[in-house]
Amino acid sequence: MTTENIARTPDTAPVVEAPERRNAVLDYAANYWRKVAGGDMGALPAVGGLIVLCTFFAIARPSFLTPINIANLLQQSAPMIAIGMGLVFVLLLGEIDLSAGFTSGVCAAVLAILLTNEGWPWYAGVGIAIVVGVAIGLLLGFLVAKVRIPSFVVTLAAFLAFQGVVLKLLKEGTNISIRDSQSVIISIENGYLSPLLGWAFAALVVAVFAAVELVKVYKRRSRGLPHAPFAVVALKIVGLAALLAVFVTILNEERSRNPLLFGSNKGMPIVVVIIAVLLVLWTLILRRTPFGRHIYAVGGNVEAARRAGIRVDRIRISAFVICSSMAAIGGIIAASQARSVDPNTGGSNVLLYAVGAAVIGGTSLFGGRGRVVDPVLGGTVVAVIVNGLGLMGQQSWVKYVFTGSVLLLAAGVDALLRKRTN
Question: Within 10 A of 338 (CB to CB), how many other CB atoms are there?
Fold first, then answer.
């Protein structure tokens, strides 16, 4: 033992200083690199891809980083992200829900009928639409968990059936408009926070993030468990604060061509706040509750989870309920975005993009690995691709091929990592 590793005090015996404490940040970086090299890359590919794509499109089309385009990106991706958040719970179990897109369409149609045709208040319409989503999730989950029909078959049948339900509700193709009298619903996608409220929300997000990170470090440290160095935690907090400051500054710029004639169009979109609240809520449930731990346990090994006393069937049903409920919220956001509901609501590429968002963000198709933030990152990647290629004047087929290639790459990485860790 060298003399520099020994600290002497008048009243105590020699104390050995742990070298890792003096190099905590370096050790943390080394441990993180070992995790990445071992296949646990988390959101790194999605974040890296997002940086590369944004840099490329910003150079190719400077209009990509204009305030109006950034706001459009956030608003256009919101329905897909909401549905993708729900799909994460099902994918974590190694299951699939092919009906989530048209579930959102059914719930959006119910909302529009109640608001426009029946004159219900917005809160009652939203409540019933979400209840319909819960009922659909209960049905799908029961068929999968209790009747033992594979989720692919159950949700494929629902995918086909719900198309017919939407047509029936909309009388074979009627377009139901969301009138200006339902201003709360319209404001979900088309309303904005004031600049001051935008800054207040950003400050709240940073404060909550800092509190969660510091409490986590304190608890792990008090139990003698490995934890992130305070320097790394501080760097995360400062990084998030800087990123939010840039976004709020950009979004607080006036985006209306004529504010006097068309009204002001600046501030953070309200739908961003809704997505952020849902992200925090479901992340806490998935990462900080026994239910969330049971989700991961069932997705990792069903038989081991059953032997541990976990009610596997109840977990499966709950996951489908959450998925369909989030699909309902996605349908409400889509109805607000279009200011109307038609037979295409929830159809077309909605489901494919939602699943793609979750997988591109890092959720495994094989179950057991994923986070609620994954569809946020993956959905942003998809939105950036579609938006950026559109600004470059590329045809639709190029967008589909490019997006499909990115999804295939993400799924391929997932399969290789799973093979490597097994």
Answer: 17
Six token digits for residue 59: 């150079």
Which pairs count as long-range contacts for 172-176, CB under 8 Å and 24+ apart, including other chains? 173/342, 173/343, 174/342, 175/340, 175/341, 175/342, 176/109, 176/112, 176/113, 176/116, 176/117, 176/340, 176/341, 176/342
Cα distance between residue 360 and residue 94, in whole Å: 16
Query: Rounded to the nearest 10 degrees, how much is the dihedral formed by the CA atoms of 39, 31, 46, 210?
Result: 140
Q: Which pair of tokens denotes residue 97?
A: 């829900």
Q: Is 119 exposed, middle or buried (0-12, 13-18, 19+ CB in 10 A)?
A: exposed
The dihedral of CA 143, 111, 162, 319: what is its sign? Answer: negative
Q: Tell me if the pTM is above 0.85.
A: yes
First to last CA, the chain: 40
DSSP per residue, 357-392: HHHHHT--TTSS---THHHHHHHHHHHHHHHHHHHT
CA distances from 254 to 121, 141, 196, 385, 388 (A): 32, 46, 14, 25, 22
- Considering the four listed CATH numbers 2.40.10, 1.25.10, 1.10.4030, 1.10.3470, the one that applies to the domain covering 44-191+269-417 is 1.10.3470
Residues (pLDDT < 70) of the chain are: 1-25, 32, 36-42, 180-182, 260, 262-263, 414, 417-422
Question: According to the model, what pLDDT value does residue 232 have?
Answer: 84
Contact 362, 371 (CB under 8 A): yes
Contact 299, 93 (CB under 8 A): yes
At 350 the pLDDT is 87
Return d(Cα 37, Cα 34) in angstroms, integer.
5
Amino acid at 176: I
For residue 331, the model assigns a pLDDT of 94
What are the CB-based long-range contacts (under 8 Å, 24+) for 249-255? 250/67, 250/70, 251/67, 251/70, 251/71, 251/192, 251/198, 252/195, 252/198, 252/199, 253/67, 255/67, 255/68, 255/71
Alpha-carbon distances, residue 335 vs 108, 109, 110, 322 (angstroms): 6, 8, 11, 20
108 close to 336: Cβ distance less than 8 angstroms: no
Strands 340-341 and 176-177: antiparallel
DSSP, collapsed to helix, strand or coil, labels residue 273 as helix
Cα 74 from Cα 268, distance rounded (Å): 10
